[in-house]
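Long-time lurker, first post.

We've been arguing in lab meeting about whether NAP would sit comfortably in this protein at all. Half the group thinks yes, half thinks no, and nobody has a model to point at. So I'm putting the question to the forum: if I give you the sequence and the SMILES, can you give me back a predicted structure of the complex? Inputs are below. Any interpretation is welcome too.
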Amino acid sequence: MKAALFEQFGAPLIIKDVPMPKVGDDQVLVKVGACGICYTDVKIWKGIGALNAPLPHVLGHEIAGTVSELGHDVRGVQKGERVLVYLYETCGKCNYCQTGRENECINRVGYIGSNRWGGYEEYVSIRSDNVIKIPDNLSFEDAAPLADAGLTPYHAIVDRAQVKAGETALLVGMGGLALTGLQVLKILGAKVIAVSRTQSKLDMAKELGADLIINTTKDDGVEAVKEFTDGYGVNHIFDFVGSAETVIRDAKYIRRSGKIFLLGYQPGDQMIPVQTVRGFLYMGGSNAGTREDLRELVRLASEGKLKSIVTKKYSLEQVNEALNLLAHGEVDGRLVLKF
Ligand SMILES: NC(=O)c1ccc[n+]([C@@H]2O[C@H](COP(=O)([O-])OP(=O)(O)OC[C@H]3O[C@@H](n4cnc5c(N)ncnc54)[C@H](OP(=O)(O)O)[C@@H]3O)[C@@H](O)[C@H]2O)c1
Ligand SMILES: [Zn+2]
Ligand SMILES: [Zn+2]
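Top reply:
Settle the argument with this. Predicted structure of the protein with NAP, as tokens:
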């Protein structure tokens, strides 16, 4: 089977013939139908951001496809089933796993596309409790980004921040994750402000329902946010960049006792003067999401409540073109590999 792999960090991906993955007794084989390209892939590929993949490596953690083989002990999954792959292989036993917060599992063994080969190849094997059924009306291409570009903002917005109707939320860095987060916020009835540097990304945010857009290459938008929130500032910020520059600016947008969630993160140290951030209730991170979150996202997408953010599809052979566009910040929406 074909796989797009890299043998050195940052080197172009090469298409190679590799053996089919082995299917363990508790695993299923998934014939990949589509795989989304996440900015985290760029970090893993370049070897930055503390995600040390073993080399050679195959990227990809937004995988949708068809179950084509079952391990000996697998029950409850059928051959031919259309599925989405949950990205973490969790223990099922620790306190987090037992309380529906398996994204925080302390015994996590696998993170597909990071510490083991992912979906930039024709087949992946994965534990059977990692596949989630998707309905026929959801294409592999539209489903794939739900596995992370959907999952991560959904968990932060719904489970962590618990955003309520009528509250104001501000998103920073209108890429794949933020564009799905925006739609989740609108479903919840929040008023949404989108902040980015690229007008075409902001235009997409506007189309998907943003109430106010701010292009920071023109103006930091602090006055516009004040006006939009009657002088208070916003209740919640979801920052998909996580640089010192964006966090210091976030501190000007947030209301007293508001919450800032850092979903994006930058390699290296980001220096933030403590006096700029001392006034809020909460600032912290949020990491991926749960299987239950993913099921809910699949339901929302199949009911047409979440629109696709996929703007272009690439073949496996075109993978370098797609990955480089994302690395250079030139992607509006999400790119997917289509098999
Ligand atoms: N917490 C988690 O579990 C989790 C999961 C997945 C991904 N992530 C992280 O979330 C972030 C977003 O991922 P994504 O796939 O949505 O990326 P993306 O599609 O590249 O979108 C991020 C956007 O942020 C803006 N941006 C990027 N670098 C910036 C910088 N240095 N300063 C200001 N703005 C910048 C860019 O828009 P403009 O050019 O318009 O500003 C870019 O389009 C990444 O850092 C990724 O590693 C976190
Ligand atoms: Zn990702
Ligand atoms: Zn666990």
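For your lab meeting: The chain has eleven helices and 17 strands. The domain at 2-148+289-338 is CATH 3.90.180.10 (Quinone Oxidoreductase; Chain A, domain 1). Whichever side wins, do check it experimentally.
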